[in-house]
Specification:
- The protein is mostly helical and 396 residues long.
- The protein has a single domain, classed as Up-down Bundle (Growth Hormone, Chain: A).
- Helix content is 80%, strand content 0%.
- The chain is built from 16 helices and no strands.
- Helix 10 (202-208) crosses helix 15 (335-363), helix 12 crosses helix 14 and helix 13 (277-296) packs antiparallel against helix 14.
- It is globular.
- The model has no long low-confidence stretch (mean pLDDT 83).
Length: 396
């Protein structure tokens, strides 16, 4: 049976909607951290606990998102998700204008945003293979470049929080999600690809038959615990307590990191399709050891910026290699559910690392939270070469 090709306009509209979504979520990542650290001035253990609380409910919602993403028309489903995502910023804007903003309202904000994100992400990512005329590696990388580039708009807005005002920034955030609906509605219809309706456990059943995908997801979980976790939890405190920075400085650091991530994907795109993406993923673990070690010794400001740029380069490569490998190997009928399991590996690790690293920072110092990432990166490299098959994996 021949597969109908998507119209050429499908991928650009997909990129527009995804980029606006990323801008809103980048702003969310900034706001959640800075409201706790810079505005409410909560200690690291409380901030870590708040992040853990905010990201725990979506763990249960994510698999449902994969299930629904495989079951409904993708265009209609994403339209609803964009509309739902406008509501939490509007709610918190009202709370702020009423002068009621508190620790628990920030937690509620995080829970609502992360929950809708969990519902939408599997469907959005699984749609990529259906709207792009490129191979999977180039499609994933191109999307990462565009969405990350537009996503820096969120950090820029966060950096000007004091001038624009928190209430206005929240209204802009809601507008970013709302405008994305118009791009989603220009996509072609993307009906369910099953001959029968999917079941909630289909993704896990498929993983039993895909050992390499299981191994990639497991290594991604391990990496997210203390590498991505260190970036999310430790960097706001390193910015504020080690370098004495404010919201604008925090935004600059996040932009520099994101520019590094974008740069790595631009470079990857020049060499794609890669024959052995697993090898690159594993070698990046060794370079991360050097980056985290440099950050740990509290370098001068220009070296700190350079290390954050390099960390962005590193994380851009590893994240793209994970996503392209899973996208390539996941069967189309259950792709959204398998991707939901991959995303689950991110989400499960986040509340765990938030609590552990938050307590570690409170008991020691912000820079100490970088040390577990060094050990974990070495472990991933050793385990990946010896036991997973990633080193010998050859992309199709």
């Amino acid at each position: 049976m021949s597969i109908e090709q998507p119209p050429r306009s499908a991928f650009p509209y997909y990129l527009i909607s995804s980029s606006l979504w990323m801008a809103g979520m980048s702003l969310q990542g900034f706001l959640f951290s800075w409201l706790l650290v810079g505005v409410l001035e909560r200690p690291a253990d409380e901030a870590g606990f708040a992040r853990s609380l905010a990201e725990f409910p979506p763990l249960f919602i994510l698999l449902l998102g994969g299930f629904l993403g495989d079951r409904f028309d993708g265009r209609s489903y994403l339209s609803v998700m964009h509309l739902l995502m406008t509501l939490p910023p509007l709610l918190i804007a009202v709370v702020f204008f009423q002068d009621l903003l508190s620790y628990w309202w920030v937690v509620v904000f995080g829970i609502l945003m992360a929950s809708v994100q969990a519902l939408s992400d599997p469907a959005r990512q699984s749609m990529l293979s259906r709207v792009a005329l490129l191979d999977v590696q180039r499609a994933v990388t191109t999307m990462t470049i565009f969405t990350s580039l537009i996503g820096t708009l969120g950090f820029y807005l966060g950096g000007h929080l004091d001038e624009i005002g928190l209430g206005n920034v929240l209204l802009i955030q809601a507008a970013l999600f709302f405008i994305g609906i118009f791009a989603v509605r220009r996509l072609p219809a993307l009906p369910m690809q099953h001959t029968t309706k999917p079941k909630l456990a289909d993704g896990f059943r498929a993983l039993k038959k895909l050992p390499l995908v299981r191994n990639v997801v497991a290594l991604n979980f391990l990496s997210s615990l203390f590498n991505a976790g260190a970036y999310i939890v430790a960097i706001p405190y390193i910015v504020k307590e080690v370098y004495g920075g404010d919201a604008a400085f925090f935004a600059e650091v996040m932009i520099i990191f994101t520019v590094g991530s974008i740069g790595s994907n631009v470079i990857l795109l020049l060499f794609m399709p890669l024959r052995h993406p697993g090898r690159l993923f594993l070698l990046m673990q060794l370079s991360r050891v050097a980056i985290l070690a440099l950050l740990w010794v509290k370098p001068s400001l220009w070296l700190f910026y350079l290390a954050m740029f390099a960390w962005g380069l590193n994380m851009g490569v590893t994240t793209t290699m994970v996503r392209t490998t899973v996208q390539e190997l996941a069967p189309a009928p259950v792709r959204a559910q398998i991707l939901s399991v991959l995303l689950l590996s991110f989400l499960v690790s986040s509340p765990i690392s938030s609590v552990l690293l938050g307590v570690l920072i409170s008991q020691t110092a912000p820079l100490t939270a970088l040390l577990p990432g060094i050990i974990v990166s070495l472990a991933i490299f050793a385990i990946g070469i010896r036991f997973t098959g990633l080193w010998s994996y050859r992309s199709g």
